Amino acid sequence: MAENITYVRDQFIPAAQPPVSDSTIVGWMRKNLFATWTDSAMTIAALVALLYFLPGAIDWLFLSAVWTGENRTACLTVDQGGALPSGWSGACWAYVGDRFVQFMFGSYPRDQLWRPLLIGGLFVALLVPLLMPRAPRKGLNAILLLVALPILAYVLLLGGHFGLSHVETTLWGGLMVTLILSFVGIVISLPAGILLALGRRSQMPIVRTACISFIELIRGVPLITVLFMASVLLPLFLEPGNNIDKFLRALIGVSVFASAYMAEVIRGGLQAIPKGQYEAADALGLNYFHKMTFVVLPQAIKLVIPGIVNTFIGMFKDTSLVTIISMYDLLGIVKASFGDSGWITPVTPLTGLIFAGFTFWIFCFGMSRYSAFVERRLDKSHKR
After folding, report:
1. Dihedral sign for Cα atoms in the order 168, 174, 176, 181
2. pTM of the prediction?
3. Same structural domain for residues 126 and 196?
């Protein structure tokens, strides 16, 4: 019986063209910008919007801007005849340059600026190697940054010891206040949030109820209310004469508020860990402390890195709310400078707000990029 070979191919398929590489500029654009008709339309609309708005923005921000000057007249444009003023220039960066020290340090005594500058230099010198994965002596570095530096900062910035003049916290302001509030809030909220999350999942009813009540109470009110309570109501519970510094109250309020939100982020990571991980740790004979420290928490924190950094970024931006208790961070002191008669112009407020917004963006974008780097480095098991 003859074999039926009707469905057997007797010729090779012609060689197909190799796929377009995404590593080239054209390939990247085809994949990310012009993959579909919808993507193409949105890309073209975005390009049209950029071509329409970007030239004017660049002209206002840089080309027509004034970079030097001593007062508002530097940002005043004059017509060709020189007789009458014809309007105002672009961005008045001369105003930012004139007020730059105030934006950074508030009313901190100018002859004592070496103290916050020294603390800032030490902060950068200790933070950079801590963020570098291959830098040695991480434990010592963390102790110096999280323990030794805050103590040194308290002694230097506040003064009153070792021959240093005392500087009231009411004179602090600007970016210095923003960074101090954010740093202390981050350092306190992460471990406090971990403890609250573990307490909320505890088998002990008293601990679980206390943690749930604290978290839900703090999350149920806005940060302005927490700051107001820390500033106004907290002294009412103290004995007469035992007053707490206003800046310390702000630190407590921001840290408490961030801890409650951090607790829920950590709890989400704990709930994402499979039950088998807990059972495996129990099978190895690990106690509760070792099980959480070496098995559960490392996995949980890795899963919620985006949520943790998102909380840090939100807290960094929310420091501007301390103006409710008369503490002026970067944004607050920029807004307070709008009333300076020497720099009152139509372009001054927008220039100051752009400067403050760009400064906030630099720090927030830096935290976001570093968190993405940490995610890529730790996400080994899910890579394809």
Report:
1. positive
2. 0.86
3. no
